[in-house]
Design brief:
By secondary structure, the chain is mostly beta strands. The protein has one domain (21-170): Jelly Rolls (Sandwich). It has no helices and twelve strands. It has a five-stranded antiparallel sheet with strand order 1-4-9-6-7, with no helix packed on it. β6 and β7 (103-112) form a beta hairpin. The termini are close together. The mean pLDDT is 87.
Length: 171
């Protein structure tokens, strides 16, 4: 495997999300219970069905890349939101052509459904995934963490998540 392709993968660059693109409610709160270091990336909370928060980073693919490997830690954000059920989230890879667009393929690596526990007693869960083969013509890849509000029946899933210790490598 290669070195980590991401910049600021542990979110320790000041109190910002430097090098990460964001959309929706995102922040970099100091967290005494961070997976490592002192900062985390926080997505949400979202407050409506369909509301989205995204954090992403685009990387240049080294020559010889065939697959990408991603690992990260996640826990529910400790926010005062009622109800406190974690919103569904997913992690995707967008394979991009030479100009950075268009998306040749978006591949979901990990998906958490509404109603599944994201944490137990503030524990961090760690995930590891391997992408499918790099599509022909892909020069860049964008790693995306996506949180989306969801209402199922009368139950709202709006609580945010925190991520930390993100590693993206190649074969």
């Amino acid at each position: 495997m290669s070195v980590n392709l991401l910049k600021n993968p542990f979110f320790e660059d000041a109190s910002t999300l430097a090098f990460w693109d964001t959309s929706g409610v995102t922040s970099n709160p100091g967290n005494p219970q961070a997976f490592e270091g002192e900062n985390v990336a926080q997505l949400g909370p979202v407050t409506a069905d369909g509301e989205v928060a995204i954090i992403s980073q685009r990387v240049l693919l080294p020559s010889g890349t065939t697959h990408l490997h991603v690992s990260f830690a996640v826990q529910a954000a400790l926010i005062n939101v009622t109800p406190t059920l974690t919103a569904p989230w997913r992690v995707t890879i967008q394979w991009l052509g030479s100009g950075g667009t268009p998306v040749l393929l978006e591949e979901t690596l990990i998906q958490r459904q509404a109603g599944m526990a994201t944490r137990d007693a503030n524990d961090w869960l760690t995930y590891v995934a391997v992408s499918g083969p790099k599509p022909t013509g892909a020069v860049y890849a964008r790693l995306r963490f996506i949180l989306q509000g969801d209402t199922v029946g009368t139950t709202n899933f709006f609580q945010g998540i925190q991520i930390d210790d993100v590693v993206l490598t190649t074969d």
